[in-house]
User: Fold this.
Amino acid sequence: MTLKNKKLIILTTIFFILVNTTYYWEVKLGFFALPAILLLVLSFFGLIIALIGQLYFAIKEKLSNKIRLYTIGLLILVLTLTFFKPFGLINFDKLEGGDILVAEREGAANCMTTLKLKEDFTFSERNYCFGVSEIKGTYRYQNDTIYFDNIELGRGDNEYYKFAIIETLKFDKSNKKFNIVRFKNKSDTLGHELWITKNDLKKLNHKRQYR
Assistant:
């Protein structure tokens, strides 16, 4: 095995591991997550170029170099899986429990906030805005009000909402679309709303909440 092929195999393997563990490390990097993801995108195209080069030499060698053929097979496998599964083969979010409620909102500069309430009475909120941050905790659902407890703040976060209520969208005449409005405290009269894309809160009526 030549040194170049060895390095290419190692780089391809590292690339594949990083793509499939993005869910965990992007939060740890915070503001550095965006450049890291951009670097992965550039690496993807770099591996495509490397694959073209390997195919050229393989044809030139009349497919006699087994190590090169193995490298080509690895590159094709990794690039194909990454193309069809850019967020990884495993949905780690689903492994953490089913979603009872999902709400999101896109802000300025394509910033995105996604809130997920899980069936085990835990929640997570991810904010994608020039980086990635995540807030976690537990919640209680009582009398149509959701209370947030045991908050674990993410990078750059100073506080989180105390409770939230669900309302119908003001301009929805069908009364079938809802949003969730979060409040910092009881004196907060404005709140901050997210648009609900999934709502199975009724399932909680048969579940015992955490103590």
Observations:
- The chain is about 35% helix and 30% strand.
